[in-house]
Specification:
The protein is an alpha/beta fold and 91 residues long. 30% of the residues lie in helices and 27% in strands. The chain contains 3 helices and 6 strands, in the order βαβββαβαβ. It has a 4-stranded parallel beta sheet. The radius of gyration is 13 Å and the shape is globular. The mean pLDDT is 94.
């Protein structure tokens, strides 16, 4: 199987096995899209979602746009020149 340039889009723990499988298969995960950090806990400090934390730990580029409807964000997405995007519980 050839190495693919993949954009991964996910947020909760449920998404992590799929992202790990892509990495284990040797694909080039060029960017991870996750939901923006949200207030959590007693102090209501912004906290990144599990996929964001995992991607940071792996040294992957992470984007957390408020919306993908913005034309500038769509241009940036297209500029990644990915072979495919894998979406698992993104929103």
């Amino acid at each position: 199987m050839s190495r693919l340039r993949v954009v991964f889009m996910g947020s909760p723990d449920f998404s992590l096995p799929t992202l790990q499988a892509l990495l284990d298969a040797g694909h080039d995960v060029i960017c991870v899209y996750a939901q923006p950090p949200r207030p959590a806990g007693r102090g209501q400090r912004e906290r990144p979602c599990p996929v964001h934390e995992f991607a940071d730990a792996k040294g992957l580029m992470v984007r957390t746009p408020q919306t993908l409807k913005d034309e500038a964000e769509q241009v940036e997405f297209a500029g990644l020149d990915a072979d495919l995007a894998v979406v698992v519980a993104y929103g």
